[in-house]
Amino acid sequence: MAMFRSLVASAHQRQPAAGPAGGDNGLEAQFSCPICLEVYHRPVAIGSCGHTFCGECLQPCLQVPSPLCPLCRLPFDPKKVDKATHVEKQLSSYKAPCRGCNKKVALAKMRVHASSCVKVQEQMANCPKFVPVVPTSQPIPSNIPNRSTFTCPYCGACNLDQQELVKHCVENHRSDPNRVVCPICSAMPWGDPSYKSANFLQHLLHQHKFSYDTFVDYSIDEEAALQAALALSLSEN
User: Fold this and answer.
1) Residues 87, 14: contact at Cβ < 8 Å?
2) Which comes out higher in pLDDT, residue 154 or 16?
3) CA 132, CA 180: separation in Å to the nearest integer?
4) Cα-flanking dihedrals φ and ψ of residue 60, to 5°?
5) What region does 203 belong to: left with phi over 0, alpha with psi -120 to 50, or beta?
6) For residues 54 and 40, is the Cβ–Cβ distance under 8 A?
7) For residue 219, which of 82, 182, 211, 228 sits 20 to 30 Å off, Cα-Cα?
C-alpha cells in the first residue's frame, strides 16, 4: 500500500503549472481546490507532497493527530503547511471566462463574480439536488449542487457514486456508440453541461476512475479488469 501511495503521489502535479494549460477554458479547473471544487481562496500548500487547497478547506485535516493529504492520502506535518504565495500571484495574473456569462474575470475575483452572476445562479438552481450515497440522519443541505451521486447518461440509472458509474457504464454500455455528456464533469463549477464526450468510457477511466475520498482503497485488480473490459470493447468495435 505504501508503494501504491507513492506512485499515486508522484503521478499528481505538485502545484499548478507556471502558465495557463489548455487555454482560458481550463484555467478555472487548473486553479480549483480539490476539496470545495471552487477557485482557490487563500491557498495553502502541504510541504511534503506539494498539493494545494483553500486554507479553510484544509483546516479540518489539521485538527487530527496524524493528518493525511486529502488528495494523495500521504501523511504530512501540519507545521509544514505554508501559504501558497506563488498560486495567489497566478490567481491575480490570470483571467478566465465566467462559466455563466462568459465575461473574463481575474481568477482571484471569480468567486465574488460567480456569487452575483445571474446566469451562474440559474445554473446552480437547475443542478440536481444533493442525494446522500447511503441513508443518513444528518440534515441534507439544500443550497449546494449534487456532486455526490450521478445519473447514467445512457440509461438514466440514478444514485450512482463515481466508482459505481464507471463500473455501470463499462459493464452495461461499453458498446454504446452515442456521444453523451459526462454527469461528473457537468456537475463541477467549470463543467459544460452541453459538451458531449466522443469516447465517454475512455474519458471515465482516465478522468474519474478514482474518487478522492476512497481511492486508496480502490483495488488495482479491479482497475485492471475495467481497463481490460474497455480494451475488449474497443477491439470488438
Assistant:
1) no
2) 154
3) 24
4) -60, -35
5) alpha
6) yes
7) 182
Highest mean pLDDT among 21-35, 73-87, 169-183, 222-236: 73-87
Strand partners, 32: 39
Q: pLDDT above 70 covers what percent of the chain?
A: 66
Q: Which residue's entry shows cell 458531449?
A: 196
Of 7, 25, 3, 21, nearest to 185 by C-alpha is 25
Which residues on adjacent β-strands are paired with residue 52?
A: 45
**Which element (helix H / strand E) includes 163?**
helix 162-172
| Residue indicated by cell numbers 475488449 | 232
Calpha distance 209→212 (Å, rounded): 10
SS3 208: coil
Cβ burial 137-161 (10 Å sphere, 16+ → b, else e): eeeeeeeebbbbbbebbeeebeebe
| Distance between CA atoms of residues 61 and 41, nearest Å | 17
Dist. CA 45–CA 49, nearest whole Å: 8
- State the cell numbers at 210: 478514482
pLDDT recorded at residue 75: 93
Residue 34 contacts residue 210 (beta carbons within 8 Å) = no
φ/ψ (deg, to 5) at 74 = -85, 140
> Tell me, what's the pLDDT at 236?
54
Rounded mean pLDDT, 70-82: 91
